[in-house]
Amino acid sequence: MGEIARLDVTIRRRSLIGYTAGMALYTLVIVALYPAFKDMSSLDDFVKNDSKAAALFGISGSLSTTGGWLNGNIYANFFPLVMLLLTIGYGAASLAGQDEDGTLCLIATLPVPRPRIVLEKAAALVLQALALGAGVAVFVYAGRAFQMDVTVGAAVWTTLAVCLLGIDFGLAAMAIGAYTGGRTTAIAAGTTIAAVSYLISSLAPVVSILDKLKYLSLFYWSVGDDQVTSGVSVADWAVLVGVGVVALAAAVRAFRFSDLH
Amino acid sequence: MSAAIETSGLSKHYGPTRAVDELELQVDAGQVFGFLGPNGAGKTTTIRMLLALQRPSAGSATVLGLDAQRDSVAIHARIGYLPGELELYPRLNGRRHIEWFARARGLHDTSFADELVRRFEVVVDRPLRELSKGNKQKIGLVLACMHRPELLILDEPTSGLDPLMQNEFEELVRETVAEGRTVFLSSHELDEVQRLADRVAIIRTGTLLMTDTVERLRESAPRKVVARFAQPVDPAVFAGVDGTTVTGHDGVRVELQVTGPIGPLLHVLADHDPIDLESRPADLDELFLDLYRDGPHG
Questions:
Q1: Where are the domains of chain B?
Q2: Which of B68, B145, B177, B224 is deepest in the core (most CB within 10 A)?
Q3: Looking at A44-48, A165-169, A247-251, B283-287, which range is the least confident one?
Q4: d(Cα B120, Cα B286) in Å, to the nearest integer?
Q5: Bridge partners, B25 (sequence order)
Q6: Torsions phi, psi of B13, nearest 5?
Q7: What HEC string does B228-258 produce?
Q8: What is the pTM (predicted TM-score) of this model?
Q9: Could you read off the pLDDT of A62-112 as tens digits, one per residue?
Q10: Residue A95 half-sphere exposure, CB side, CA atoms within 13 Å?
Q11: Residues A167, A240: Cα–Cα separation, whole Å
């Protein structure tokens, strides 16, 4: 990791620790509650009887199984939400925000090519997403102590897919910020795309018109296709990594030719 | 003498607004070059184009013999920059700023940074959010100068500094040029620039008004002459003298502004038997204020 990435992580370390500790604690509470709910058939009845309402929260299938419980309480909603708060926030702040604050001009007058500045900011983004994800993965795996049938692979790969989801949106916010020069614009655009993406993926199983659109949703390729239970496929990885590469390239190109304030 | 900075038709337009228009500038190496103009004149925009922070709408610039846009990374390795509106990281202290920028520049020997910290009495152990503007400005100066760059580009460098530290800054600038390095000093403070600069450029509304040595500017600057007479005189008799303007009168006292040789005026004054005569040295303030207000032909 280069000095620019190190600096950004340093100045955001307090919020990163807060996000990571909060999300880890939430995960621990959820897995610790599992034994109390795993035999409640009424939860599954609720999903069956009102599948559209359940879908709004990203819930589909059984809630009493390990996969269903983790999906319905962590992976399909709260974890991606917190991840996106972190990554879209940093993505918008890293170029556009720091330019608005006036700190970016000193960075941009270091003997460092502009593409490398973007790559280092992307590295800082990845590190923050992985730190948040690590806390979740550890406590999801700790679910084994609470009667959960969790493998290391399921905990790690599904968590990593959510990390990639966050990284993709963070890079998109970074690129939008570099193109427009506005932090608010980057946050608004990133959040709007993420919200639409979430709704398409979560409602696709119950709203037929959205079923064909689900392939346009990054949520679908991350957690929307029951990856917690069935695993993350090669196609999922390809889409998540591919979108990230495209967003990164767009951010590099935009920042290379942008005027700083 | 080689040019540290050279611009050719350098322009920056924002829609119909011409922030900088066809700027032709040459800054010789080893000099202090003063870049003067009122706020909003285009000084900062010019600097940003020299540093490749902004792309020109037209024209080109070379810095240390390299293309300002294409070779910006190589240029950045050889320059030090203090922005006009310095923003640093509020939660980090001065020491961490200095250490981080030294590492980012690949600077291993920080002894000069330590010397600057001592000379400017920089507070390095408190977060920047607790420091005054002047103390932050000192940290900015250390960051710009600590690697002994070939070219220092300083935008309003003494903003917020107390008089003692302004003197220390001027000493640092003199040491810098004594070592053969170049200082590009952008300011709206005439006093500071005329004390330090070898050459001065004046810019207003994006247009270069003039470039000259401070010496020659001083020669061409208007001097103020106040004459008192025993009897009331008609000030119109002085208005016709070459290079002379009547700026005030109250019967027996006449205030005049003279540009160029004072001899013709003295002949006319002598014809009216003055009882007292006061002549103040050439005042660059007046020249610059005239230029700021009216342009070179105003």
A1: 3-218, 222-281
A2: B145
A3: B283-287
A4: 33
A5: B7
A6: -115, 140
A7: EECCCCCCHHHHCCCCEEEEEECCCEEEEEE
A8: 0.88
A9: 778 898 899 889 999 999 999 999 999 999 999 999 999 999 999 999 999
A10: 38
A11: 9
Q: Where are the domains of chain A?
A: 3-256
**CATH 3.40.50.2000 correct for B3-218:** no
CA of A62: how far to CAs of A39, A141, A148, A205, B117, in Å? 11, 20, 14, 14, 65
ipTM exceeds 0.90, yes or no: no
Nearest CA among A69, A86, A75, A73 for reference residue A19: A86
Among B residues 63-92, those touching chain A with beta carbons less than 8 Å apart? 73-74, 76-77, 79, 81, 83, 85-89, 91-92
**B143-202 residue pLDDT tens:** 999 999 999 999 999 988 999 999 999 999 999 999 999 999 998 777 788 889 999 999
Tell me the shortest Cα–Cα distance from A105 to chain B, in angstroms. Answer: 7
Are B76 and A103 a contacting pair at CB < 8 A? no
Count of pairs with CB atoms under 8 A, one residue in A, one in B: 56
* Rounded Cα–Cα distance for residues B60 and B69 (Å): 8
**Tokens (6 digits) for B270:** 């002598």
Q: Would the CB atoms of B53 and A3 count as touching at under 8 Å?
A: no
Other CB atoms within a 10 A radius of the CB of residue A45 amount to 11
B222-281 topology per CATH: Alpha-Beta Plaits (3.30.70)
Contacts 24+ apart (CB under 8 A), A98-105: A99/A181, A99/A260, A99/A261, A100/A181, A100/A182, A100/A183, A100/A261, A101/B87, A102/A261, A102/B83, A102/B85, A102/B86, A102/B87, A103/B87, A103/B88, A103/B89, A104/A260, A105/A260, A105/A261, A105/B48, A105/B53, A105/B83
